[in-house]
Design goal:
The complex is a heterodimer of chains A (250) and B (117). Chain A is mostly beta strands and 250 residues long. Chain A has one domain. Chain A is built from two helices and 17 strands. The relative contact order of chain A is 0.22. By secondary structure, chain B is mainly beta. Helices cover 3% and strands 55% of the residues of chain B. Chain B contains one helix and seven strands. In chain B, strands 1, 2, 3, 4, 5, 6 and 7 form a seven-stranded antiparallel sheet that branches. The radius of gyration of chain B is 14 Å and the shape is globular. The chains are: A mainly beta (250), B mainly beta (117). At the A-B interface, strand 2 and strand 3 of A face strand 5 and strand 6 of B.
Chain lengths: 250, 117
């Protein structure tokens, strides 16, 4: 099953945006499919200590947060990528971003198919912060063909935030600094890749990227490895869970 | 849609009047008029949701939501206790009806402003 983008939420260029809140949630307009990957990109901007970010949903899926990047305490912007693999999908699927302290937030979510059902991260997610016109995550190198998702944010007065990641597709973009700002994008490919944007003027920025492995023949790579390492006679039980297990007389 | 709920003490679950989204673009929902003493009270919470209806208001679905929690808050520009806001682009939903819904466990003074940006 090939890697593919399914849909995003919000289904607009701007992400969902909020200021001075304890959490922010957005709900997909149509059903999400069980087994797919949900990837959320979130940014925070707050005076003081940068908060941690927790992603969750209303389907009790297991979310992980990674590739967090952070700027200096003087302009505390964070960008993060959260994901839930092999999700339980369905109608009114709501994803929530909850920071550890009240702050300003941006949130965007995307659904992808064909991703490994468990342990989907391939390579090492990376994040970086800097001060220039060129937000750049640093490179991640997955083991094989993968889905890459990147996010960026900047602090300071408003300027433009333009995706500069060759062949990548923009998911969300909010360059207005009334909010924390968020640029997010994805690409399906292979090899070392760096998520990059271009700012209209030099600003403090944060950027991050993560890669997700492609499912192998509809079965995750990790499952194949696990099955081949198990006692072979157990394979029949795994393949035919509804069958009657024969009595074994010792 | 110019939907403004006056500042007053609210408690429990409530919904605003509904209105048809007749223009594309961004809309902002602001919580206004929270007194300083209530803003500083960490026990106070407000759940605020923006609901949409594609069948004229017969059935509603939550599209966006924020939780506000009291406690001393300094905005990133140094402002003390700035009004909480939710801002979203509602262009895909032009023609649908919208409402704001809230849940307030402890009586809290606030108003709501819906503004098209």
């Amino acid at each position: 099953m090939a890697l593919a983008f399914v849909k995003k939420d919000p289904n607009t260029t701007p992400p969902a945006e909020a200021t001075g809140v304890a959490s922010l949630a957005t709900t997909f307009d149509s059903n999400t499919a069980s087994g797919n990957l949900l990837v959320a990109t979130g940014t925070t901007w707050v005076g003081g200590t940068a908060p941690t970010m927790t992603f969750s949903d209303n389907k009790s899926n297991d979310w992980s947060s990674l590739a967090v990047s952070q700027l200096s305490p003087a302009s505390v912007v964070r960008a993060a990528i959260g994901y839930a693999a092999n999700v339980t999908g369905g109608s009114t699927h709501t994803v929530t971003l909850t920071p550890s302290v009240t702050c300003d937030l941006c949130l965007g979510v995307a659904e992808h198919s064909g991703v490994a059902l468990s342990s989907p991260i391939s390579g090492t997610p990376v994040g970086a912060g800097g001060s220039s016109t060129a937000p750049s995550s640093g490179a991640t190198t997955p083991a094989a063909n993968a889905l890459y998702v990147g996010a960026a944010a900047y602090a300071g007065s408003a300027t433009t935030l333009v995706l500069n990641w060759a062949s990548a597709t923009q998911l969300h973009n909010e360059p207005n600094t009334t909010y924390p700002t968020l640029g997010s994008a994805y690409i399906i490919g292979s090899g070392a890749m760096t998520a990059q944007w271009t700012l209209g003027a030099s600003r403090d920025w944060a950027a991050c990227v993560a890669a997700f492995a492609e499912a192998v023949g509809g079965i995750t790579q990790s499952s194949v490895i696990s099955a081949s390492a198990s006692v072979p006679t157990h394979t029949a039980v795994i393949l035919y869970p509804g069958s009657v297990i024969p009595t074994i007389t010792l | 849609m110019a939907n403004v709920l006056a500042v007053q003490v609210r408690q429990g679950d409530w919904t605003s009047a509904t209105a048809t989204l007749n223009q594309p673009g961004k809309w902002r929902v602001s919580l206004t008029g929270i007194p300083t003493a209530e803003f500083e009270d960490a026990a106070r919470t407000i759940m605020l949701a923006l609901d949409l209806s594609s069948d004229g208001g017969t059935t509603w679905r939550q599209k966006y939501a924020v939780d506000w929690r009291g406690g001393h808050y300094v905005g990133r520009d140094g402002t003390i206790n700035p009004p909480p806001t939710l801002t979203v682009d509602l262009t895909p939903y032009v023609g649908e009806r919208a409402r704001v819904r809230g849940s307030v466990p402890i009586g809290t003074t606030f108003g709501i402003e819906l503004t098209r940006l």
